[in-house]
Amino acid sequence: MKLPHSSVLLIILLFSANMFSQKIITTIDGPEKVDIDSLSHWVNKNRIGFDISEIAFLNWNAGGTSSISGLLKGKFNRVYTKDNYNWTNELIVRYGLNKQDGIELRKTEDVLQLSSALGYRQDTLSNWFHTAKFNFATQLTDGYAYPNKETSISRAFAPAYIFLGLGAEYASKDKHKLLYLSPFTSKITMVLDQRLANLGTFGVKKATYDLNGNLIAEGEKSKVELGFLLTGFYKKEIFKNITIENRLSLYSDYINKFGNVDIDYDLTLELVVNQHVKTNIGMHVIYDDDIKAKEDINGEQVTVGPKLQLKQILGVGVVYNF
C-alpha cells in the first residue's frame, strides 16, 4: 500500500533533526543525559535497557524446567518547543526471547512503535493544544501460535497500524500527564503479506474463491477506517524510587460497528535500585474485534474469534541513559 504523503513527511522530518549541545538533568527516573539544541529548541532523551530472568534446576526432586529469558528495549524521545508550538516524537523498540530445556527458542516480545504529535496553543499559560497526531506500530519478526512453528500468524508489517488525526491534547508542563481527544482519526491497517491477507487476518478483506477452490481475487492488503480516538498517558512517582506509568488508547470506527471499542492499555511499575539497575513489572491488555485468536488443535491452526489479550511482564535489568 502507498502511504499517505503526510505520513511519509512526518517520518522524514522526525529523523532529520541535528543536535549540538548536552547537559544533565534530574527526573524521577534519575539523572539522564539530555541533548539540547540551543538553536532549534530540541530536547532529546535516549534510554536503552536489557532485562533478564533465569531459573535453573539440578537434581531438583520437585521437578521443573530450566529457562532463561532476555528482553532488549529502547526508548528515544525528541521534543521541540518554541513559543506556543510543541512537537513531540517518541520511538519505542522492544524484543524478547525465551529458551527452555527441550523447547526451541521462542519470541516473547516484539514491538516497534513510532509516535509524533505537533501541537499549537493560544498562549504560553494554557495546557491545551490543538494537535495533529501520527502513530505507527508493527513488529520486527514472524509470530507463531506455539508450538506450531511451521506457519506464521503474523509478520513484519503484517499487521502494521497507522493512526493519523486531528484533535485537542492536554499536556502538563513536565509531560507526565497527557490526554488526547480526536473526533477525526484515520486508522489504516496494513497486512503486507499476501498469504495472511488472503486469509483476511486483522480485519482486511479476504480472498475470494470459486466452488472449485480456484482463486478469483486476492485479499486486500489494507483497510482504512475513520473514527474517534482517545489516548492517555500518566506517569508518577508513587513512592520513593517507585514509578508507575500508564498508557491507554481507545478507538471506535464510525462506519463499522460504532461503539465497538478497540482497547490498548499498558501498565508499567518501575522500581529503581540505582541509576543503572531497575526492576520492571508490567501488564499489557489488548482487545480488537478485528484480531481473531488462533488455537492449535490437533496440529492445525483454527480461528476461534476475537479474545481479550493479556500479557504480564516481570524483569530485572540494566538501563543506560544517553
Fraction of residues in helix: under 10%
The DSSP helix count reads: 2
Strand percent estimate: over 45%
Write down the Rg: 22 Å
- Could you say how many structural domains there are in total? 1
The H/E string reads: HEEEEEEEEEHEEEEEEEEE
Architecture overview:
With 322 residues, the protein is mostly beta strands. It has a single domain, classed as Outer membrane phospholipase (ompla), Chain C (Beta Barrel). Helices cover 5% and strands 61% of the residues. It is built from 2 helices and 18 strands. The protein has helices at residues 5-14, 194-198, and strands at residues 21-27, 30-37, 42-55, 67-82, 85-100, 103-120, 128-138, 160-171, 177-190, 208-209, 215-217, 222-239, 242-253, 262-272, 277-287, 293-297, 300-305, 309-321. The protein is flat. The two termini are 36 Å apart. Residues 1-31 have low confidence and may be disordered.
What is the topology?
Elements: H1 5-14, E1 21-27, E2 30-37, E3 42-55, E4 67-82, E5 85-100, E6 103-120, E7 128-138, E8 160-171, E9 177-190, H2 194-198, E10 208-209, E11 215-217, E12 222-239, E13 242-253, E14 262-272, E15 277-287, E16 293-297, E17 300-305, E18 309-321
